[in-house]
Amino acid sequence: MNEKLSIRRLPTGVPGLDNLLGGGLPEFSFNLIAGTPGTGKTTLAHQIMFSLANPDNRALFFTVLGEPALKMLRYQQQFPFFDIDKINESIRFVNLSADLLDGNFERVLARIEEEVKGYAPSLVFVDSFRSVARSTKPGEQGLLELQRLIQQLGMQMTCWQATTFLIGEYLSAEAESSPVFTVADGVLLLTQNLHRNSMMRKMQVVKIRGQAQAPGLHTFRISDRGIEVFPRAIIEQGEAVESTKELSANSERVSMGTPGLDDMLGGGLPAGYSLLVVGPSGCGKTILATEFLAEGVRKGEPGVIAAFEKSPSQLLSTRLSSLVKTGKVGVIDTRSLDLSIDETLHDLIEMIDRMQAKRLVIDSLSGFELALAPEFSEDFRGSLYRMIAKLTGMGVTILMTSELEDRFTDLRFSPFGSAFLADAIMVQRYTEIGGQLRRVFSVVKVRGSEHSKDIRLFDINDEGIVIGEVLSEYDGIMSGRPVINP
Q1: For residues 362 and 353, what is the distance between their CA atoms, to the nearest angstrom?
Q2: Which member of 8, 12, 211, 423 has the lowest number of beta carbons within 10 Å of its beta carbon?
């Protein structure tokens, strides 16, 4: 044999799942969908089945001692993937409970073999296979019978050229000793965890033979549309945020839309950079972000804003309204609770690709952390690092805002210690001059580029931000307070 065998990969029809599997399910593979009750095992199996089943690729769905087929179908019909026309035409349901009552595995196997030979399916599902394991006779003899059944079933299904799925309620500890996990070509493990009144579902591809799968745990949701998987962002080579960025004289620069600010940044913000704008409430962070998006619209560069502090209706009552109405700025509603970083990243990438957006505003990181499920907020820095790396790797220029209390006595750039992931940092703050509270700002860093070191006054009027004069040493003395502390 000089030619290498090529295994066809079957698309699952579950958004995001093919990415986890390395391109899809290997045809004729023997798979296990495992997890605790309520994790979505049956829903996942049905979504895959209805996506793949057609007159040329028929499916057999065996039910054992789980819920009756009629009850199961009653609820599955609520999902849009359910196609009633495929029932009995491309999909057939068979109940094995009577064959299993006396624990006779040979009878169960014979019934499955009979149905498969008579129907000639391309897809075979057994739900719940855990019921078969619970019917095992006590002692070593019963375990050997179960293992023999599994091995025979796996070999026969491969010979019949059917892609097989066993659905079962398994805990992670049981997986270490269960013969099903050993024989299976692919194992999908579904989990759900309750953490501080927040429910988070995750999926893991424990193994898939012959192809590289996405490692680790990945968030998924069960919505009115069915199951949708949000693969965890993995930083590829060359996407690291802290990598050295070399800028030449010809490097593209992005205009900020605020007169005078481009000069302070050394000619504008380098394209594909992430800018962190920090400051206390009311200092003009959102206005600066709005001007950044408006400048993009003027230059034919669509933008996206992910607003974690304002609802879409609140945003549309501001200057952003006209930008959104043009269709050149998209708004992602992130006000729902229990968000995950990966789900948010999925929505951002989807909108950025659809709009061919070049600019992104995240307003603000403070609100973002509050919107996350507790499990993700505990690792906010690491998750945010992966997210920013992925987006800047796509060539998107990002402006992030962050609420920062003005203490007048120290200098900080982020309440999360996440300033390291920004390519550029700008600080806005207040100072007292002549009995008035005045706004000042400065550019702290622009990676790989010269920038202004001045601390400048600025005002906000109907036209937006107006940059004023450099704050002098005399102003600092007259205020009686330090202007900025190193």
Answers
A1: 17
A2: 8
Among 111, 7, 134, 132, CA closest to 60: 111
Span 436-465, pLDDT tens digits: 889 999 999 999 899 999 999 999 998 889
CA gap 373, 370 in Å, rounded: 8
Any idea which of 42-46, 294-298, 328-332, 410-414 has the lowest mean pLDDT?
410-414
Output phi, psi for 90, to 5 deg.
Answer: -120, -15
CA pair distance 415, 363, nearest whole angstrom = 15
List, in sequence order, the alpha helices (H) in 326-484: 341-355, 365-371, 374-377, 380-393, 473-479
What is the SS3 assignment for 77? coil
User: Minimal CA–CA distance to 441: which of 294, 318, 287, 293?
Assistant: 287
Whole-angstrom distance, CA of residue 289 vs CA of residue 106: 69
Say how far apart CA 5 and CA 298 lie, in whole Å.
Answer: 54
Cβ(38)–Cβ(192) under 8 Å?
yes
Residue 294, Cα to own-chain centre: how many angstroms? 28
Sheet holding 198-208, edge to edge: 91-95, 59-63, 123-127, 163-169, 30-35, 186-195, 198-208, 218-223, 226-230
Q: What is the DSSP string of 239-268?
A: --TTS-----TT--EE--SSTTHHHHTTSS
What crossing angle do the helices spanning 140-159 and 105-119 adopt, rounded to 10°?
10
Say whether 102 sits in a helix, a strand or coil.
coil
| Residue pLDDT, tens place only, 313-367 | 566 556 778 888 888 999 887 655 566 788 888 899 999 999 999 999 998 887 7
Residue 182: closest CA among 147, 134, 153, 139: 147
| Bridge partners of residue 169, in order along the sequence | 35
Confidence of residue 483 (pLDDT cuts 50, 70, 90): very low
